[in-house]
Predict the structure.
Amino acid sequence: MATVYLNGEYLPAEQAKVSAFDRGFLFGDGIYEVVPIYRGRLHRWPLHLARLRRSLAAIALDCRIGDGELEQITQQLLQRNSLENASLYLQITRGGVPGQRDHFYTEGCVASVFAYVTPWPQALDGPERPALTAITVPDLRWQRCDIKSINLLPNAMARQQAREAGADEAILIRDGEALEGSSSNLYIVREGGLITPPEQPRMLSGITRAVILELAGQHGVPVEQRGIARSELQQAEEIWISSSLRELRRISRLDGVDRHYDASRALYPKFAQWFHEDKLR
Ligand SMILES: Cc1ncc(COP(=O)(O)O)c(C=O)c1O
């Protein structure tokens, strides 16, 4: 049985319990992070920590746990579960006061911190990862998608819709523009360069996206950060998505239409190679 961390304790997963009055349970009042761990090392940890702190600040969630302590908890989890290649799930909710359910932030709450690691045997496979399929769906989310909130119902609905259509990912369309996937960022390739939507409140600023943009800079690949019209997506030379656990993937079928892909001319194999080298550094 896996060992997880909850509020200062290491416990078997089935014994980890929080109060039914925790605001995470009642309101989805909390934030989270997912971090890849390669060979026992938290990948791009400072970027994940910075986003975690931004999310906490955005919802005024006062959590006293320090950065060093979060890292120690992860190392303990790796050790106790005998893992080297894994993913970390870290969630902080506002906590709650028994018997109280207020929309405003209830006074006297103590933040609840939950973390676990999942084995990831394929973590070092690569460089290229299996291609994925996608459908486009309307974006039903709120206006602060830049906060990594645990409120993921619209994302879950979109992913379920993809699954029912036999696809792996749902690409979210708002006001005619493709913003990102249900749990991934989006890129298209045009004339040897990358196009990806710019950081904004309508999407999550992915850490993997930051890595991809850094790699593009290092290798002199032009990047345009701008909106992608739905029609442009459908005609793109290449479509990719990225996230911490799926890493960088190309989309081989969109809305039921196969995407023709010439591996000798495509940018994807190069980025997959650079990405692979980066994670082993
Ligand atoms: C909506 C959304 N966009 C983008 C991403 C990719 O972010 P990252 O690369 O930090 O995993 C995620 C990851 O969960 C996500 O949920």
Q: What stands out?
A: Residues 34, 155, 180, 183-185, 204, 206-209, 242-244 surround pyridoxal-5'-phosphate (CB under 6 Å). Residues 186 and 241 are 5 Å apart (CA to CA).
